[in-house]
Amino acid sequence: VDLYDAMVSYELGELSSSLKGAKAQFNINNIADTKYVASCAGDSACFYGVGRTVTMTVNYAW
User: Fold this and answer.
1) What's residue 62's pLDDT?
2) What is the distance between the terminal CA atoms of the chain, rounded to a whole angstrom?
3) Which residue ranges in the chain fall short of pLDDT 70?
4) CA triplet 30, 33, 38: central angle to 5 degrees?
């Protein structure tokens, strides 16, 4: 199974000096929303992996 993820981040201080120390990050996991078996516990208890997830975070360090 092929799973693809992507991440883009940007230092917001590049836009304005008042934003120095701030960073925005955008993540996508399992871009194609692939259905796959992540694990099995025996012959009859298998579990699917997580589908597509999208997150955005903003961090500030001072």
Assistant:
1) 86
2) 42
3) none
4) 70
